[in-house]
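Feature request disguised as a bug report, sorry. It would help if multi-protein outputs had a clear separator. Right now it looks like this:
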Amino acid sequence: MQDFQLEKVNDYLLACHSRDEKLCLRFYISAYEELNKLFGLLGSLFGFISSDVQSKLEILSTYLADSENATAFSTVSGMLRCEKESGKLVDSKYISGSRTLLRLHRALGFLVDFLERISTLSLSDSLSKVCYLSYRSTLGNYHPQLIRLMVKGAVYTLSSKKDLLDKINKDNKEEEYYNKLLVEVVKNGRKVYQLTDALYTFHNLHDLP
């Protein structure tokens, strides 16, 4: 696995929403591919999350690579509209991009909240408590009790903010550099999250099974 680069996450998130509010799907996927590396840094117990995210990214990437879908699926807005108007969302055999993205969207809410909390920690602080607080207030709302208990146990294996920064800081940058970068990532991540949420609301697709 290549090194996780927070700078790339920020660049991709910014590119995703900077052109218009339709949201570029390719940059959304690119941002998530980079964010998914973060789960690998958090420990083996987060491997099941990483695998699930990767499988969903592959579904979306397949649609983008298909010339029949490439234009409609170039933006999040276009994909939701195309699948809804074509009636594909009621086809149980159809692997829906909208349904797939909805799961990633919910997880993005967790990641943005978690990164924001990390930015406020001192170097010696553990990531465990803030990770669980972020999970409980976001993604945990969509999981059954068994999954919530598994996550609660998994987060207590997390180390400190310093240990995480040591893993991603290959250029010996100061902590302040990453705190400022985290603020930018959170700002752009929240923008993408809010715009995506608004699109699902507009198309009435928040409750896709």
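(second protein starts here, but nothing in the output says so)
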Amino acid sequence: MIFFYIFLLLFPHQICQAEVNSNMEGKLLNDLLKDYNKMSRPVKNLSSPLEVTINIGTFESFDLDEISQTISVLLYITVSWVDKFLTWNPEEYSGINQTRLPAGQIWIPDLQLQHTPIGSGMLSTESNAILDSSGLVKHTPPGTIKTICQEMDLYKFPYDTQTCTIEHLSFTHPSNELFLRLGDFTLDQNTFQSQEWQLLNVTSRIEINYYGGPYPFQKHIICLMVKRIPNYYISNMIYPYAVLASVAGLGFTLPPDSADKLSLGVSVLLSTTFYAGMVADIVPVTTSMPFLGLYCLVMMSLVAFSVVSTLAVINLHNRGEAKMSYLQKTIFLKFLPSLLFMEKKSKPSQVQRNTNHKGKVQVETLNDSSKEVEQEQAKDWKFAAKVLNEFCMIIFSAGFFIIFAYTIFFL
């Protein structure tokens, strides 16, 4: 308490001056808003346009929803103009050169956010506007901008680069009444916060459009170019899909008579179908299929191919004594083995030598019995199954490595 009285004794002038300035600022606001009409354009000559300057500040957050194809951006935009009816002489108000007042109590440009899914997209009037003694008004509306990102190209998803626009325009004031001008443009990459996107470039421009009237309307366009960071999709979708498909490829190494050869492929096919459902939930419905969807479709097709080829191999292996046609012999015993550098191991014909009680050797003729012929046919079918298994494994491996290498290294 003692220090408070000492402060009053030493600095009485500063305390009184602060009280006077507070009273003067209140008087200034009352005088400015007296008889002020916020519905009319603040120009003394109605035929002259009002110049509105748009200054782009920093980007602090960015989010893009692929399903609804909308972007949410925390962007600071400062709109400034000169209000001829909000000027004063600072000498009459204790040297006050600047003040603040609610934006909802004065005229502000009716700039609307075009292509927005919520509300009318009008500039917010909930914050204060900074007012200069010369009538210069600066207004920075708060809030997150949410707009539709048109013409999204998702073919290279998740390696895609998107270009989205934020458009502001006035539908009621043509350019002869409200003239838009680009102001300062400051972009700091360090303030951009997004776990999924990298900001590449930001541009700003003014376009002129005609909407059926004699005078053109100006549109302020902010163009954002962002690149997706694909780490999440690589670690949670691309690599798991590749691992599942490679497990299905291991089924070719199992012998045809193995009980787990078919069940392995069916289990992997069910797992890939589950992952395909996850991809469908995050990819929007578009006319062109995203590459991630194409990747999953190819991998699932390869797994389905392994299951079908396994069924074919098991079928050939268990044909038994069925007679092989000429076409089947040509394909499975001649053409494919020569293509795969495989050769059937054939055993020489059995010759039976029986010795009688006199020591004479009797050479029996070749065993042309039906039983030996049937055994030879069964061996041909098993060899055909082995050839088909090797051929299908090569096709599967080639398709797998091509789609996986293209996804990782060439997109």
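Even a blank line would do. Unrelated, but nice: The first strand starts at residue 50 and ends at 65.
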